[in-house]
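Subject: two folds for Thursday's group meeting

Dear M.,

Sorry for the delay on this. The cluster queue was jammed most of the week, so I only got both jobs back this morning. I'm pasting them in the order they finished. Each block is the input sequence followed by the predicted C-alpha cells. Could you check whether the formatting survives your parser before we put anything on slides? The first protein is the one we discussed after the seminar.
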Amino acid sequence: MNTLDSYILHTRFMLLHDSRNDDGIKSFFQEVHELYIKIILNPLYLPGSRIASSHFDTKVRALARKYL
C-alpha cells in the first residue's frame, strides 16, 4: 500500500512511499527542508523557479535511501 505524506510551507514537499516509519519520514522532510532553505538563500536563486541543481537532487535521493 502506498502512502502520501506532505510537508507544507509556502512550498509543498510530497512523498509517495511504502514506509511505515513515521520518524524516518519526519526526519526526511526536515532534512529536505534544510536543503531547500540553503537553495532559496542563494542570491542567484530566483524565487518560485524550478530547482535544477543536480546536487539538490542527489542529496534528496540519498536522504530517501537513508530514511525510507
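Second protein, same layout:
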Amino acid sequence: MPAKQEHTDKDIKNKMLKPFLQDLKSKYGVKCYLWVAEAQENGNIHFHILVDKFLDNRTYYKDSSGKKIERAKEDPAYQAITRLWNLKLAPFDYIKRYNENQLAKGNKPHFQPNSVDIHYIKKQDNVAAYITAYMTKEEKEKRPIEGQLWGCSDNLREVKPYEEIYGKELYQAIGDMQKVGASKVKQCFVTDDGIKKPEEMAQAFLGDGCPKVRAVVYFYPQKLFMNVVGQAFKERFRSFYAELFKSIYLDDGTVPPAMAYPQKKPEKV
C-alpha cells in the first residue's frame, strides 16, 4: 500500500485485491494464482501472489536484436501491472494520499507509485518450499491479518493430491531415499496430541509415554524421490499431472481419469 492503510483487511481483499486478480485472469491470461496476506512493519497489509503467467511490468522491451528499448511512460505497457494495481487503489484515495505525502516532503508527485514488485522464481525445485514457507510462517512480532490469510483460484481449490497405496514399492523407495539423502528426508508423526517431530516423540517416550501414532509423514525433495522410485510409479505420477494440466488449461470441462487413481481403496488399519 503506497499510503497508510485506512480500510479493513477484509475491505482491501474484497474491493481491491479481488478485482485485481479478476483482471489478471481476463486481461493477462492468468489461470492459476495463489495469494498470501501478511502485515508489513508499518502495519499495512501486503500480498504475495504466485501466478502461472509471465506478467510484463518492465519499463523497457527488447527489439529483435536483443537491445533494450525504454518504453514511453504514456505507453500502456509501461509498468502495466503496477498501473493496474494502482487503478484499484485510486478510488479509495491511496494514490491521492501518496501524492499529498510526496508534496509535503518537497518531492514531485508520482501518480504511479511503485506499489508492485515482480520477480520470477529462480530455482523451480524450491517452489514448494517457497510456497510452504509463506503459507505456514508465524509473524509473532506483526499484527494479525483480519479474515482470510490466503486464497487461490477456483481451479486450484478443486485439485486433488496424488495418492498411492503405501505398499512394498513405496516402502522400498523411502528406504533407498534415506540411504542416499538421509539429511534431506524429514519426518513427523501425527498423534492424538497433535503433530510431533522425532525428537519430541523421543522426549515423550522417555517421559510420560508416547501418544498414539496415527500416521508417519515424510517430507523430501521430489527430485530425490524420483531418482529412487520405480519406473511404474513415475509413469503413474506423470500421467496424473499431465491429465491435471489438461483439465486446467484445455478448458474442456472434463474430469481427468487419472484423478480417480488409485481405484482400490487402502484397507483400514
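Two things I noticed about the second structure. Strands lie at 33-39, 45-51, 60-62, 68-70, 150-152, 186-191, 194-196, 213-219. The longest helix spans residues 9-28.

Cheers,
T.
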